[in-house]
Amino acid sequence: MNEQTALITGASSGIGFELARCFARDDYRVVLVARRLEELQEAARLLHQEFGGVDILLLPLDLSRPEAPEQLYAETQRRGLQIDALVNDAGFGETGYFADTDMQTELRMIQVNATSLVHLTKLYLRDMMARNYGRILQLGSVASFSPSPCQAVYAATKAFVLSFTEAVQHELKKQRSAVTMTILCPPPTDTNFFQVAHAEHTWAANHTASAREVAEEGYDAMMEGAARSLPTLAAKANFFSSLVLPDSVLATLMNTQLQEVRH
């Protein structure tokens, strides 16, 4: 019986739910975090249906609120939970020219995609360092590797996550810590991301990877203590293109993927 606990943000659907499924399959207690309780309840129902008596805790929280990470940490502390694996999956995007998009939406995006990720990492990493054990999975993107016109702020948040993760990975090695941190950089994936980002009719939305395939590759990389996971050939192609092509060309290619497809 696995007595470890995994906390997954953005766990009610998409990659986050599939990662929760991986932990549940391996008998972890899972703490599912997302904004809407009814969606978390449906996710829990599906996990119970597949895995029976898996121990599930639902914590509905809106990570776009600056106080939410401290509230989440305080609640897990109050319940006496030791978080052995932290998955920072919560995030969303917005599509359109930066001059035209909504400022408040983008500020919430920065809060969820970057600020809350750093905040939760700080809170739980300190506990993991004290125990000299723990795993953290950060959700990046192929957008981490290049500018992305029409998703300028989203791509910038994912570039931030990549830089932050790689820096802390180096620090953990210098400190000889057994705690590991992995970044998962998926290609466009079959989730509700494109609907939320108002990009459901783009080329990228019509050429997506399976959320389950992405999650399982990321989970395996996390368990192995790998620095990075590039699930699918498409993700690997994006990464290697970023090594050889100038940013101006990469920006053009990314912009092409966000053009509306007319049927």
Automatic annotation (TrEMBL):
Pfam families given in the database record: adh_short
PROSITE patterns attached to this UniProt entry: ADH_SHORT (PS00061)
Keywords: Oxidoreductase
Alphabetical list of InterPro entries matching this protein: NAD(P)-bd_dom_sf (IPR036291), Sc_DH/Rdtase_CS (IPR020904), SDR_fam (IPR002347)
Protein family: Belongs to the short-chain dehydrogenases/reductases (SDR) family.
Protein name, per record: SDR family oxidoreductase
